[in-house]
Specification:
Beta-lactamase, about 450 residues, single chain, Beta-lactam/transpept-like, disordered C terminus, five-stranded antiparallel β-sheet, 18 helices, penicillin binding, Putative penicillin-binding protein, alpha+beta, 9 strands
Length: about 450
């Protein structure tokens, strides 16, 4: 019995000794093993493992920083706000650069790019908005409506619902405003045009012969033509066009298309948007950023409406007129501001604008309306706690065309696709009231044919 106990104790001491030896071996620093390894492959794998660990640490740190930052007040500077506007393309670029860092095996570079990506994500998903997307009370109360088309106006009011915004509807064959809901906002100094600025940049690039709708432009990691870029509202594509054109040419065409000047003819209360004389600083993106979503530019709903009306009618830029009495309707005569040499480029532009509605950023319009072709462009961006949602469009029917601009201000529920959705509601309402068969024809009867170049200004 005593011998058995001795054997048991000896066995226990043997096992304990083996365990301690194993533990000592496990505690040898890994870097020591890697340091003595003569295999280049093993060294590379080790480096890759270290990079992955560093990536996790950086990501964790960025998430913690993001969570902490989200409890603070929203950044109000334009530089920080700019990174929140249409950031999908920039985030994609950061991921591409992070991937390049993995190939090179440079942990430091990889970490820097991953932190940049996390920063974009933080701004994209945690931006705080202080403005409300909704209004209390009737939309358009206090508007002057005696000279407007009552069917068009009611359809625009119903489409807006309780959203904080304005809707402007224009007859592109003569420049007459058929409805202007929430006139205080419609006549205000405007806001950043967001991606609707891409229409002016596209027309400038087409006019200069820089591209056609089918020209494939090489971008980081992919290629794209104008039709795809307009439909998907791709920032990188228009940044590249902006750099190729340069600020002077971009500004020349923008002002030729009516930006930076009053769009209306003696419309009481209309205020002026702005197109700057100099590009924004390169630190904020320069001319590239101005061409992707209009940073530094102030656009009014009337200016955008006048431009889209010129696209719809083949190049006549009308002064917009807003009759306020039955007498003004009876005496209405169109007034031409100037004739733009864009007719041959409109089909190139229409492909992308149709694509936006059919499969791109404005496809929400087709949820409620599919009875007529609609060509449009969305825009979404934010500034100082307020988010903007734009959608400008024109319809195409045998009885005539309409131009619409829906502009929304608010918080997270406000964005370009929402404005496109409301536009679909507007067209559906008119269609259900047989407007395109009857009312639009009546509106056209009040107009004279479009004057040629050099006609009464």
């Amino acid at each position: 019995m005593r011998l058995s106990r001795v054997r048991a104790i000896a066995f226990f001491l043997f096992v304990f000794g083996v365990f301690c030896a194993g533990a000592a071996a496990l505690n040898v620093p890994q870097s020591t093993t890697v340091h003595h390894s003569k295999s280049k492959t093993a060294s590379h794998v080790s480096s890759a493992r270290h990079a992955v660990v560093h990536h996790s640490a950086a990501t964790t740190s960025a998430r913690a920083s993001s969570a902490h930052t989200s409890s603070r007040s929203t950044h109000s500077s334009r530089t920080h706000v700019a990174s929140t506007r249409s950031t999908t393309s920039h985030i994609g670029s950061a991921h591409l650069m992070a991937g390049a860092a993995v190939v090179s095996g440079t942990a430091t570079t990889r970490t820097a790019y991953l932190r940049r990506t996390s920063l974009h994500r933080r701004h994209r998903y945690y931006e705080r908005f202080t403005a409300s997307s909704f209004v209390v009370g009737g939309v358009g109360e206090g508007d002057i409506t005696a000279g407007e088309d009552p069917v068009v106006r009611q359809a625009a009011i119903d489409a807006l619902g309780d959203m904080n915004g304005t809707a402007v509807v224009i007859n592109p064959s003569n420049g007459r405003i058929l409805a202007m809901v929430n006139q205080k906002l419609a006549l205000s100094p405007g806001a950043e045009p967001c991606s609707t600025i891409k229409l002016t940049v596209a027309l400038a690039a087409l006019s200069e012969g820089l591209v056609t709708r089918d020209t494939m432009v090489q971008l980081p990691g992919f290629r794209m033509n104008m039709t795809q870029a307009l439909a998907k509202s791709n920032n990188l594509y228009f940044e590249e066009l902006g750099r190729e054109l340069g600020f002077d040419r971009v500004r020349h065409y923008a002002t030729e298309f009516g930006l930076g000047e009053l769009a209306g003819y003696e419309i009481s209360g209309e205020q002026l948007g702005e197109y700057p004389d100099q590009p924004i600083p390169e630190s904020e993106g320069g001319v590239a950023r101005m061409c992707s979503f209009g940073q530094g530019v102030s656009l009014t709903p009337l200016q955008l409406g006048a431009l889209v009306a010129a696209i719809a009618n083949g190049g006549t830029l009308y002064y917009l007129q807003h009759p306020t009495t039955p007498e003004e309707i009876a005496n209405f005569r169109p007034k031409v501001k100037r004739v733009l040499n864009i007719a041959k480029y409109v089909p190139d532009l229409e492909d992308g604008m149709a694509g936006a509605v059919e499969y791109g950023t404005a496809r929400s319009l087709r949820v409620n309306f599919r009875d007529l072709p609609v060509f449009g462009k969305t825009g979404t961006c934010s500034d100082n706690g307020t988010r903007f949602g734009w959608f400008a469009s024109y319809s195409n029917s045998a009885e005539g065309s309409l131009v619409t601009v829906f502009f929304l201000e608010g918080g997270r529920p406000t964005f370009g696709p929402k404005a496109a959705e409301l536009t679909g509601d507007f067209y559906r309402d008119l269609w259900d009231h047989d407007f395109f068969q009857v009312k639009n024809q009546d509106a056209g009867n009040s107009a004279t044919p479009a004057p040629a170049a050099g006609a009464e200004q």
